[in-house]
Amino acid sequence: xxxxxxxxxxxxxxxxxxxxxxxxxxxxxxxxxxxxxxxxxxxxxxxxxxxxxxxxxxxxxxxxxxxxxxxxxxxxxxxxxxxxxxxxxxxxxxxxxxxxxxxxxxxxxxxxxxxxxxxxxxxxxxxxxxxxxxxxxxxxxxxxxxxxxxxxxxxxxxxxxxxxxxxxxxxxxxxxxxxxxxxxxxxxxxxxxxxxxxxxxxxxxxxxxxxxxxxxxxxxxxxxxxxxxxxxxxxxxxxxxxxxxxxxxxxxxxxxxxxxxxxxxxxxxxxxxxxxxxxxxxxxxxxxxxxxxxxxxxxxxxxxxxxxxxxxxxxxxxxxxxxxxxxxxxxxxxxxxxxxxxxxxxxxxxxxxxxxxxxxxxxxxxxxxxxxxxxxxxxxxxxxxxxxxxxxxxx
Length: 395
Hints:
Layout: H1 3-13, E1 25-29, E2 32-35, E3 40-43, H2 46-49, H3 58-68, H4 81-93, E4 100-104, H5 107-122, E5 126-130, H6 139-142, H7 148-151, E6 161-164, H8 169-178, E7 181-186, E8 189-190, E9 196-197, H9 200-213, E10 216-220, H10 235-238, E11 244-247, E12 258-262, H11 264-268, H12 283-298, H13 301-316, E13 322-326, E14 329-333, H14 338-347, E15 350-351, E16 360-363, H15 371-387
Parallel strand pairs: 3-15, 5-6, 5-7, 7-10, 10-11
Antiparallel strand pairs: 1-2, 2-3, 4-12, 8-9, 11-12, 13-14, 14-16
Helix pairs in contact: 3-12, 4-12, 8-9, 13-15, 14-15
Organism: Salinibacter ruber
Family: Belongs to the class-III pyridoxal-phosphate-dependent aminotransferase family.
EC number: 2.6.1.11, 2.6.1.17
């Protein structure tokens, strides 16, 4: 099937979702993908920050294939050795005290579960979230997504959320002191907002406020987690440990899966039946999780994430205004709108992403890109900038 045929069928039969790239991808290997006509692209986008180990990593492929030959699925009403192995690896990498795991299928589900656990544990209903934050599209997580464009059609049925500006501890204290708040929810790096990093002292201040008011602190690490930023969780570099962490995206290296890491005290208050998911913890997903985490540790890929960030920053720093983010979760602030540059990069056979900040492009390369891949990206970016125009500056 050609690209044109594929696009025609999808446009006829699927309801609209994203403004899709004009390509039909059919194969992937490492940091590369190929379209239906055989064109190869260097993938620094990773299908929305998913392909942590690159495409079709042999360890993940072998694990999923072996599991598929044994038992494709049975719900988590039964015990499973592959789920036990995945849970053990995840608990071993979790911050101290957060070695309790709930498996689900998507980042939105993980955030929604974390919010439910917080409300049940505290007996409160209020939630504080950050301005410009993004947490998902199911109703509970959508309620905490700041962009009103996505919330507006459902306002009448969304739980109430109070938003506070990032960095303003006084605003957070005023809400937490005067209202019954179950949880504070934040992304350590607001990726879609343009890779806006949370200041460490601000997050530490939120941790202290939550402790003082009996509020739970939730990290949405759907994008920052699983080693992409150089550490398994951002709790270490931020110097603050949350009560709950939502993980997804990179966790299965391409296989849909998510998880919530739960504090010991919160986990002790959960009873059988309080949470559930038919497909959460399914065997194929668990095989992918175990293989991903094993590879992450054995190949020291978290350290490689930091090296890649340094290499990209050195290669493109002179031609961009700012390099944001950590590890393989990067934002490049340009001196011109990013969208034409993103299109020009695609013409150079390189895939990157945009953000809600029109001047910031997002890079989410896999942790397996080589030095040559970084050089190829930098050369393509130079060409893309040459092919686009920067706005004239006032004198």
